[in-house]
Design a protein that fits this description.
Blueprint lengths: L8 E3 L4 E6 L6 E3 L4 E4 L9 E2 L10 E6 L3 E3 L9 E6 L3 E5 L11 E4 L5 E2 L7 E9 L2 E6 L3 E2 L4
Antiparallel strand pairs: 1-9, 2-8, 3-7, 4-5, 4-6, 6-8, 6-14, 9-13, 10-11, 10-12, 12-13
Length: 149
Amino acid sequence: MAMTEDRALRFLGEPTSIRCVLDNSSAYTIYKGEAGVLDQTGDTSYPIAQKEITVAAADICIGIAAEQCEVKTSDREKDNVIEFYTWPSIVGFKSTVFDLTDLEATVYQDGDGLLTATAADNPEIGTVFWVENGWVYVKLSTPTICTGA
């Protein structure tokens, strides 16, 4: 099951972001809180929602979408501009996968937008910075090559 809605996010400190044009080779919606990836076997210039591809070791995770954007194949790519949170942001995700014993553990995001410790087919987004009250704060390492995918 893929992401179908925006995720609630929290921040420790001020987040840093970059603006990117999205790939429009297929129609999709990227949701707030979802990883954006440069597909090295597809459009290597513009990121796409990670749920739209099988993430491979050469792909590059750009960051975490700061907003929702609906992409249509009939759109001009330059019309689909979106902000991605990147390093050195610390972004909080609602999750119970990690706890305080996992500080500095590598964090990946699956196609459902959930945090995971599993690298296979998932982009690396950062490391566990802090865990508190059901929120996992991830120190983003993006943009980064998804070597573990």
